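can u do me a favor
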């Protein structure tokens, strides 16, 4: 599969898989000046590209595990979703859960993009749902 990618800012980089076995392709910050993310603050980081995700697929933006485990930098919404019909610039919100300021520099790998197939179901109201062992048991109903 090839994902058409449009460069929107000078110096933007293509998403890049670090190894052949990498599921995610690294997304790089495309910024003119460093961005400082203070503890407990969120900043939107532009990537400088737009992508054409094929119909039947979706882009999922995940945090980089190294930024989370070393610095407390992650995505405030856990996983970002890029719909196949979105053609605007990719931007990644980052939140600093660490104790120190975190500096994002131009070209730095800040997140990863995974392209996966998705179903587009039709939803309809129904008077009954099938029964299951769990039933209506909610959060924690299956134990710790």
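np, heres the sequence
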């Amino acid at each position: 599969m090839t994902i058409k990618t449009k460069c929107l800012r000078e110096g933007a980089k293509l998403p890049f898989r670090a190894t052949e076995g990498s599921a995610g392709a690294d997304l790089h910050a495309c910024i003119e000046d460093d961005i400082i993310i203070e503890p407990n603050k969120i900043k939107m980081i532009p990537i400088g590209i737009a992508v054409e995700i094929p119909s039947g697929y979706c882009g999922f933006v995940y945090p980089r595990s190294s930024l989370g485990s070393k610095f407390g930098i992650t995505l405030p919404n856990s996983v970002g979703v890029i719909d196949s019909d979105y053609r605007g610039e990719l931007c990644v919100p980052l939140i600093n859960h660490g104790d120190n300021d975190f500096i994002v520099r131009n070209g730095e790998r800040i997140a990863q993009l995974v392209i996966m197939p998705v179903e587009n179901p039709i939803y309809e109201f129904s008077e009954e749902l099938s029964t299951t062992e769990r039933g209506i048991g909610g959060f924690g109903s299956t134990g710790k």
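The chain has a mean pLDDT of 94. hope that helps!!
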